[in-house]
Amino acid sequence: MGPPSMLIIPGASALPELYQPVVDAVTKQGIHIQALHLPSIGAKPGTPPTMSDDAACITQHIARLADAGRDVVLVTHSYGGAPGTQSVQGLSKANRQKQGLEGGVVRIAYMASLVPELGQPAASVQASLPVESLVPTAVDENGWIYYPNLTRSAELSFTDFPPEEGIFWAKKLVKHSAASFATPLTYSGYKDVLVSYLLCTGDLTIPAWIQQKEIDMMEQEMGRSVDVTRIDSDHVAPLSHPEAVIDWMLKLAKAD
Fold first, then answer.
1. Distant-in-sequence, close-in-space partners of 189: CB < 8 Å, separation ≥ 6
2. 182, 139 in Cβ contact below 8 A?
3. Tens-place pLDDT, residues 126-152
4. What is the pLDDT of residue 108?
5. What is the CATH number that goes with domain 5-255?
6. What pLDDT, on the 0 to 100 scale, is given for residue 32?
7. DSSP 196-243
């Protein structure tokens, strides 16, 4: 059948270009891969989208690939862990096989992601962090999150870059729907598929101990182990340590 298709589910405020170096490198290895642009990313008129809207968008992409007979690996980053988890409902390969259908999700690969407990929103994962450890945010009059202190955003999220380069990337973060962080997870998609986690030990945005706590929670819920890879990276490994991320993704493609 060949390697699975990969869908990158981006972090909050992150446009696909943040993942382009990784996408280009993986594509050169003959693997179909795409970084999605979620509805919650980038301010637009109307009611700000929820995490459920993001999950529905991901579901459409999964279904299109699955209906073409493709196996799918979801690679989630940061906020993307919540809608990525939600989107698997009914679309795992095992579930589709029961219906006589080919293709489907075979693995979720979390990368420094927010994985809330069932019934909890993405915002709950970092709730125990002190305010000074959180990336400074504000919400405009229309319900969109923005970043009022780019220097601090760079220090926390783009930690492994020189200050000027970190601020350059922080400026590329667009507004993000506040409502998406408040939408509870209603489906534990990780129970349906294989699970991997790229734990970034130098992450200040989602510290390593929080990432480990998520891994422990999933293992307890699933009754099986998560395949964990640890790298010394800040929160944006696809930019700061692309070689490590590419190597990880290629190994996942071969495993599936």
1. 84, 85, 86, 87, 88, 89, 92, 105, 108
2. no
3. 998 988 889 999 999 999 999 999 999
4. 98
5. 3.40.50.1820
6. 96
7. EEEEETT-SSS-HHHHHHHHHHHHHHHTS--EEEEE---S-HHHHSHH
